[in-house]
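Researcher: Next entry: Cyclic nucleotide-binding domain-containing protein (Cyprinus carpio).
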Amino acid sequence: MMGTLRDLQYALQEKIEELRQRDALIDELELELDQKDELIQKLQNELDKYRSVIRPATQQVQSRSELQEHQRTKRQAISAEPANVQQLSHVTLPNVPKSAKSKELIKSAILDNDFMKNLEMSQIQEIVDCMHPVDYDRNSCIIKEGDVGSLVYVMEEGKVEVSKEGLKLCTMGPGKVFGELAILYNCTRTATVRSRRNYRCQMKV
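Model: Predicted structure:
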């Protein structure tokens, strides 16, 4: 009888320990799930920010396509080249001397950019060759939201802050392209870019 009671007590302790471990595992999984939910929400917020920048450019392109129906097929085929590409094809671009390091930085930045990486390598090389350096002091406004854009930039040194309607979207460091949407889609600037440190970039007309 005593042996049976001890066996029951031992079995009960085992069950209690098993339940404790199971509860601990559930707590751990719930914490992990909460962390993943938080990460998903953070990524969703970042995606919404970038969509708020890209959407106006897309809307402006669609509006122009409706007004200029005969250009739409061509724009789709060349995938993000300027609307006046025929004029540009007859222009001789200057070759601006620069170090091998600067050339590699510009090329890598373009290939890392979702909107420019599909350009022909010959086009990318032309952009690399004709870009020239420009310096900005801290807190300089490099691009202003709503302005007509005619320049694209590749960051070489420093840091910039990107904002839309007064709200900060992100910061960017060396090796990043910006200003490309207004050039590729022939629209106004979709965001404001300010230098947060003394800044040097490569610029292309």
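Model: Note for the record: The beta strands are 132-136, 141-143, 152-157, 160-164, 167-172, 177-178, 192-195, 199-204.
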